[in-house]
Amino acid sequence: MNEKLKSYLIHSALFVVTFVSATLAGAEWTYGKSIFMEGYTWADFASGLPYSICFLTILTCHEFGHYFTAIYYRIKTTLPYYIPIPPIPYLPFTLGTFGALIRIKERIPSNKQQFDIGIAGPLAGFVVALGFLIYGFVTLPPPEHIFLFHPEYKKYGLDYANHVYDLKSMPANIVDVVIGKNFIFIFLEKVFADPTRMPNPHEIMHYPYLFAGFLSLVFTCMNLLPIGQLDGGHVLYGLVGFRRHRIIATVLYFGLLFYAGLGLYSPYSPIDVYTPLYVYALYMAMRSLFEKKQDRLMYAVGLFTAQYLTGWLLPSLQGYSMWLGFIILIGWVAGVPHPPSEIELPLDRTRKILGWLALLIFVLCLTPQPIDIILPTAATP
To answer: How many domains does one find in the chain?
Structure first.
C-alpha cells in the first residue's frame, strides 16, 4: 500500500469514527438517548444526525479553508485529521469530537501567507455557522415542542420554567445544563427568532442547529484568540508585527489565566494537595514567556496570589475553570509569542480590513461561560 493511499484511509477512517461519535453525542444531547441505555435503536442514533451534520459541516469548512489556502500557496500540508470523542460510560454530554486539524509540513515563509492561511479557516467556518444558526432560528417549532423531550413538564404547561429549574425540587439524577450566549447569538436571536418560540437557555441543547451553531461560535472564538500560532495569533501578527503582538498576546494571556482560575482558591476554600500541582501548571504556562525559571515561578505564584486575594475580597466573582486546561496548554505547548517570519511584508488594505473583522468576530463570539453544568445534588438544602 503506497503512502498516499494509506494517508487517505487514515483521514477517511478518522472522519467516519468522528461522524459516528458526534451523532451519538447529538442523540444524547437532543433526546437524552445514550448508547449505554437498554433498547437503544437505529432511530435513536439517527436522531443525532442534525447535530453531527451541522457541527461537522462547520468544522470541515473551517479546516478546508486552511487547507485550500495552503494549497494555493503550494505549502505542503495534510488533509484534516478529525479527532473523535467516543462515548464514555457514566460521563454524560460529550461533544463527540475535539475538533480537527491540518498539519503544515513546512515552514510558512511570509507573514502574508501565515495571515491568509490563518484567517481563511475561521472566516469560512463562521459564515457557515451563521447560516445554520439563522436556519435554526427561523424554523423554531412551537414552544410545546419541549414536551417531546420533557413530558414531565406538561403538568406545568408553558409556565414550566418557574417550576423545573429549582435545584431543591429537581430529581437527584438530573443534570441541568445551561447554555451561555454571546453577542452574535443574541443578535441573531433578536433578528430571526420568534420570541414566543425561543427555547429557555436550559433547553437549547435539545435544538441541534442552535446548539451546534453556538458551539461552533465558541470554537471560532477559541481559534481566533490572538495568541501564539493560533489562527487569531497569525492574524494579529500580520496586523501589528512581532513586538506589538507579543505585548498584546502576553497581556491577554495573563488576563485569561487569571479569569479561568478565579474562584478555584480563596480563604473560603482551603488549600489542598492539588494546590502545588495547580501552581506548577501556572509555572509551565509561563514557559514561552520567560526564559529564567525564577521568573516563571515568580509570575506563577503572583498570579495564584492575585486569584486567592480576589476570592477573598470578591467571593461572588467566579471565573470559568473549564477554560483553564485549554489556556494552560497554549502557553505550555504552543507558546504565547508568535515566532518572527522569514519574510515580512506589509498587508494591503483588503487584508487589514479582513484582519480587524476577524478580531471583531473574536470579540462578538466571546462567551465567558459557554456551558454551565449544574448538579442538583450539590445544592444545599
So the answer is: 1
